[in-house]
Amino acid sequence: MASDMAKLLSETEFRNREYMITHLSYDREMEFYQSIKMGNVEEAKRLFKPLESEGLGKLSEDPLRNIKYHLIITVAFITRYCIEGGLPMEEAYNLSDIYIQRIDLCGSQKEVDEIHREVVGTYAERMNKLHKKRVLSRPVVVCIDYIYDNLHSKVTLDDLADITGLSAPYLSKLFHKETGTTIKQYILGKKVEAAENLLKFSDYPCSDISQYLGFGTESHFICVFKSFTKITPGEYRERFYRTRWGDRHGSRAADPSDI
Predict the structure, then answer these.
(1) Do 104 and 41 have their domain in common?
(2) For the chain, first and last CA: distance in Å?
(3) Which pLDDT does position 85 carry in this prediction?
């Protein structure tokens, strides 16, 4: 059996090279799933690609069945990423069951494409609402959205006061009261979360990640990262780089200084 599989793998690799068949970039694929997990609806829409335009492997000789299989795999990945992001397990799996049953009944590629868009939109919207589920006032929600959109730059209390029209002291107290953390720690925490994803799913060196996320120096980035995770960025990458979701979870069946 092992020799048969080796032969099949060799033949598949040869055929794919011969016909220049490539698979979707791993990093771009993970970026897409992360955008859904984080509830970033607009980013998920930007990264969305119809299945027929992707670098997909051949899972069936029948074109419709092939695209159905790929969408089912996509639903499975999205479901698990959203559970990891905090979506209740039963809700996530029930959605998955509903969509896979609908995919199974599809009679055309157009129907599959429509469900594909719906899946992405539904999960991303649910994750977006989940992140804002706690009863937050409009100024705090505005702050959270602004911080999320500007993780690559330095965000200050004065910036947030300006966009909310509130005084800095009042906004600071309001934010702490509703979120349980200071604005500064919230910003740093979100930058660390973004760094974790980049360390897991990209090859960018720590120096580039530090610069991208608006840290003054790489040493400051390392200090902040370690204060949140208890390990250095290098140790984190060594432990988690490209670790698949299923390797970390069972399947269903089977104060730092200012930036």
Answers:
(1) yes
(2) 57
(3) 83
